[in-house]
Amino acid sequence: MIKDIPNSDEYKDAAIECLIQAYNNIYNVDNTLNNETPREEIWEYNQIVLRTTIVLIHQGLEGLMKSEICKKTPLLLIDRKRSDWKTLPDSADESFSEMNTIGGDDLLRTFFACVNTKKINTDFLSHYEEIRIKRNKIVHGIGTEKLTPEYILILILNSFTYLLGKDSFWDAVSSKFYSHPGFRYEDSDIEWEDMIHYNRMEYLNLFIGKKELKKHFSIDITAREYLCPFCIEKAEMITEDGLKYPDSKWAFLNPNKPDSTNMSCIVCGTDFGVIREDCEKTDCKGNVKYLLEDDDTTETWVCLTCWNEEIKET
Known about the structure:
By secondary structure, this protein is an alpha+beta fold.
């Protein structure tokens, strides 16, 4: 009997962990930059980080393919002739983890035998082959090609989107961030702020841009953007000049129609209702407002274009 047979989720979780770690490797280097040292020099020094990240991406892709194969049966992953399986009644048990599993071309062909190819992005095959070749060169010590962090970030985003669909990258990043134990203990020595997570989206926008990011979200993030009241509340910072709020906009009408009264923020994942009414501020052309406060006598509405607050008697 073959014992300890893995399931699809185990491979998927491990694969996502590899891809998130790949992303964090890039983000963490950029997050320590200062104004004195050019970014290009920092990444010239950290080429080894970019190369090892390629290895992580390759491992993540193989894990996601194995996860899909497991939905049929994990036994398809075993790289051993059936005549050598210790499964007859007089055989000793053997753990799945002690058996070799398929890789490379065998894994790729088995993967496509187990999935509906119409649901897999047509660019996945070339994407996997590109990473496989680079990974092999790096592992065998001949990968000297200069890499850029932007290139690696796009590889990570494509790996998520091609196999797990749009929104999967940011969902995974958010889940990993907010599930950290530091959020569960108020007296923790680690200070966890929502601004840290908010800055991750700002980081991607700075170095990749919305045109590229658009490919990885189900909401059109190149449409007209609005302030998110929940991000502003949670991602505020105390500075020398007083309280500072995020001023970039990651909330979008969903669906994006002239009469839509539903909005979604891709940073914090909050869906909320709004009203369509022109802003009272003369130089603002916004027409989307959110009910900020509501008491017995007044309502405070805020324009999600300019954050102008309007108090109405009730």
